[in-house]
């Protein structure tokens, strides 16, 4: 593990944590777009889950009084069930295929947020929560990234940015803890990764604090367009690099 590798990992985690605390999700979309370039996909997922778990725990505790548990449950329960099943089964899928699917998902998310987010409004009902929970569980289980789908349900169901941020962080936190346990059992994260976790945590804290400042001062919609443009370009790069 070279110093350059550590700095690269820290930069990626800092950017991911900043997006997470500013928009409510996004850490794994950035970390899983870049960390597989320097480590195995399964190891990148394990490290990403550790980092995002720390971030979501911190924000969930900080805004615990604003968490809307009743709103969250209809989407949380199906997500955790499907996520656990898919995450275990995904261990049998090749890393190259997972990375290509990740690129396709990034492009799809980017296109959706630019083209359809202002036209499609999901009503926060138990039925829609179950449907989106199943979709979210698949995305979470395969890519450790279910935030965009969860946001479709939680954003219109909560009142204001504070309730939304608190509720989606608690949602992600519970799922992250489950995936972290599965990752440890499947050997996606071991004691050899602890030095990288330590370096990443420092970057995570800095990124989280910076993101909270951005969340309070800059409209999320404006910031989100920049981020999803970046996510979309990252997805295209992943796809092209695998097709060449």
Structure description:
- The structure is a single chain.
- The chain is mainly alpha-helical.
- The chain has one domain (3-243).
- Helices cover 81% and strands 0% of the residues.
- The longest helix is centred in the C-terminal third of the chain and has 27 residues, at 160-186.
- The model has no long low-confidence stretch (mean pLDDT 80).
How many individual β-strands?
0
Low-confidence runs of at least 5 consecutive residues: none
Q: What is the H-and-E element order? A: HHHHHHHHHH
Helix content: over 70%
Shape: globular
Terminal Cα span: 29 Å
Average pLDDT taken over every residue: 80
Number of domains: 1
Integer-rounded radius of gyration: 17 Å
Strand content: under 5%
Q: Give the biggest sheet.
A: none
User: SS-based structural class?
Assistant: mainly alpha
Q: Any chance you could write out the topology, listing elements then pairs?
A:
Elements lengths: L2 H21 L3 H8 L6 H22 L6 H21 L5 H21 L10 H18 L3 H11 L2 H27 L7 H24 L2 H24 L1
Helix pairs in contact: 1-2, 1-3, 1-9, 2-3, 3-8, 3-9, 4-6, 4-8, 5-10, 6-7, 7-8
Give keywords.
mainly alpha, 81% helix, 244 residues
What does this entry show, briefly?
With 244 residues, this protein is mostly helical. Helix content is 81%, strand content 0%. It contains ten helices and no strands.
């Amino acid at each position: 593990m070279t110093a350059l590798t550590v700095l690269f990992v820290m930069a990626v985690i800092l950017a991911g944590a900043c997006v997470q605390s500013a928009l409510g999700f996004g850490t794994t979309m950035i970390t899983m777009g870049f960390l597989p370039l320097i480590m195995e996909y399964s190891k990148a997922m394990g490290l990403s889950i550790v980092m995002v778990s720390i971030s979501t725990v911190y924000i969930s505790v900080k805004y615990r009084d604003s968490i809307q548990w009743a709103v969250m449950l209809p989407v949380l329960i199906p997500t955790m069930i499907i996520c656990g099943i898919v995450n275990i089964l995904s261990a049998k899928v090749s890393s190259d295929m997972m990375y290509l699917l990740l690129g396709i998902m990034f492009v799809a998310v980017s296109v959706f947020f630019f083209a359809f987010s202002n036209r499609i409004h999901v009503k926060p009902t138990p039925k829609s929560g179950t449907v989106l929970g199943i979709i979210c569980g698949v995305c979470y289980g395969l890519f450790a990234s279910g935030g965009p789908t969860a946001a479709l349900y939680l954003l219109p169901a909560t009142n204001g940015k504070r309730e939304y941020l608190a509720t989606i962080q608690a949602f992600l936190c519970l799922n992250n803890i489950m995936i972290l346990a599965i990752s440890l059992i499947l050997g996606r994260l071991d004691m050899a990764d602890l030095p990288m976790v330590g370096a990443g945590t420092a970057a995570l804290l800095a990124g989280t604090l910076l993101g909270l400042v951005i969340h309070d001062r800059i409209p999320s919609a404006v910031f989100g367009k920049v981020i999803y443009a970046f996510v979309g370009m990252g997805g295209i790069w992943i796809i092209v690099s695998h097709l060449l």
